[in-house]
Specification:
The protein folds into two domains: 210 residues, Spore Coat Polysaccharide Biosynthesis Protein SpsA, Chain A (Alpha-Beta Complex); 72 residues. Strand 1, helix 1 and strand 2 form a beta-alpha-beta unit. It has eleven helices and eleven strands. It is 38% helix and 16% strand. With 301 residues, the protein is of the alpha/beta class. About 3% of the residues have low confidence. The chain has a seven-stranded mixed beta sheet, sandwiched between helices.
Length: 301
């Protein structure tokens, strides 16, 4: 599958209810370039592998499938399938989400025109339990002190470190030239990958319209204790690696600490300990000044 402009990486595990719609949305993309779809199933025990193989048989020139016999874990599965991509640009989608048919073209065109941009996201709609679609909220021009919309912003490494959930994971496309990064001795989250892969460039939004749908309340939520504890490890890792951004990291930790206190989560104490270890006096002021942006970056996945 050489000479592909875009590789789409799909991670899936026990998603027989959703994976068919996800993969069909990839097969139905309207593009003027060659692309590949790489599907990595993490030893599912349901019908997910059968459905994935059906798509490989229907679209043999587009789909490449990896069916693992032993469970690798979400982080390792992500790293594995992204490591197989040959496209100039690499997109990611979780197996329970799906795209609109203009997604790949819109993001590839954006990267073509903006050489400083290493990562590009887009707004997504949320499909709630029961099937109702909710419009994404990342649109309000009063979110920023100087006006404008989310798609007008450029997120450098400092901004991604501070705001964390800059873009939905299933909306991400990035340049293959920034794919490689050193991982830590714990499971890598999409936040970790974004911080490293933005490199010396920026992350942007391709446009102001949703290009896909994510299913709320399905899969590994950012609200789970496991994910929040991994965030604590990630904050400490980056505080050591990027001491010049400790103020941004401390602000991110403070954001989660306050949220956990408000919602009476048991992980509030964990974030407080990280807050003390990374403390910078300016974090309170930073948090106050950035609240309008934080309210716009509301993703439950």
């Amino acid at each position: 599958m050489a000479n592909k402009k875009v590789s789409v990486c799909v991670v899936t595990y026990n998603q027989e209810k959703y994976i068919g719609q996800c993969l069909q949305s990839l097969a139905d993309q309207v593009v003027d370039f060659e692309y590949e779809v790489l599907v990595s199933d993490d030893a599912s025990s349901d019908r997910t592998p059968e459905i994935v193989k059906e798509f490989r048989e229907r679209y043999p020139d587009t789909f490449k499938v990896f069916l693992h016999e032993k469970n690798m874990g979400a982080g390792n599965n992500y790293l594995f399938v992204h490591g197989q991509a040959v496209g100039d640009y690499i997109a990611h989608v979780d197996g329970d989400d799906y795209y609109y048919n203009n997604k790949l073209q819109a993001q590839a065109d954006f990267l073509d025109k903006h050489p400083r941009c290493n990562i590009v996201w887009h707004r997504m709609r949320a499909e709630l339990p029961g099937g109702r679609l909710e419009t994404s909220t990342q649109t309000s021009p009063d979110a920023f002190e100087n006006g404008g919309y989310l798609y007008d912003m450029e997120f450098d490494r400092a901004a991604i470190l501070q705001f964390i959930a800059v873009g939905p994971n299933s909306s991400k496309m990035y340049r293959r030239t920034v794919r490689e990064f050193s991982v830590a001795n714990f499971e890598v989250l999409d936040y970790f990958a974004n911080v490293e892969q933005v490199a010396d460039g920026v992350g942007c939004y391709a446009c102001d319209v949703p290009l896909g749908v994510y299913r709320a309340g399905v899969g590994m939520s950012s609200g789970s204790n496991k994910t929040r504890l991994l965030l604590c490890k990630t904050f400490l890792f980056f505080a050591k690696k990027y001491p010049q951004y400790k103020a941004q990291i401390n602000t991110a930790v403070l954001t989660y600490f306050i949220s956990d206190l408000k919602n009476r989560r048991g992980t509030a104490w964990d974030f407080f300990k990280v807050y003390v270890l990374t403390f910078r006096p300016s974090s309170v002021v930073r948090l106050y000044r950035s609240m309008k942006v934080i309210r716009q970056l509301r993703f439950s996945k």
